[in-house]
Amino acid sequence: MDKYDFYDFEKVEEFQNQRARKYIDYVRRWRAAKEKGNDKAKERAMNAMRKHKEQDEKFKIMAREARYYWW
Fold first, then answer.
1. In the structure, what pLDDT confidence band is assigned to residue 4 with cuts at 50, 70 and 90?
2. Is the dihedral angle over the CA atoms 46, 51, 52, 56 positive or is it negative?
3. What stretch of H or E contains 41?
4. How far apart are CA 65 and CA 9, in angstroms?
5. Cβ count within 10 A of residue 65
6. Nearest-CA neighbor of 45 among 58, 59, 54, 32?
7. Mean pLDDT lowest for which of 4-8, 24-28, 55-59?
């Protein structure tokens, strides 16, 4: 998402909700892998969640520059 897109607050809110749903999917994958005892799938899910958090931090900075609160 481009820095200037953060000024359209409706789009940002929709984007934020999409990212939240995607993170929930990663958590579901991690839980399923944990229940099955699949260490490789669990590690992949953890890496995806870690990457997602790092991207969220970048988006938070961009949103703050546009004076939008990113939860």
1. low
2. positive
3. helix 39-65
4. 13
5. 11
6. 32
7. 4-8
Residue 67 three-state SS: coil
- Counting every residue written for the chain, the total comes to 71
Place of tokens 């481009």: 2
Considering the entire predicted model, what is its pTM? Answer: 0.82
**Nearest-angstrom CA–CA distance, 57 and 50:** 11
b/e sequence 18-57, b meaning 16+ C-beta within 10 Å: ebeeeeeebeebbeebeeeeeeeebeebeebbeeeeeebe
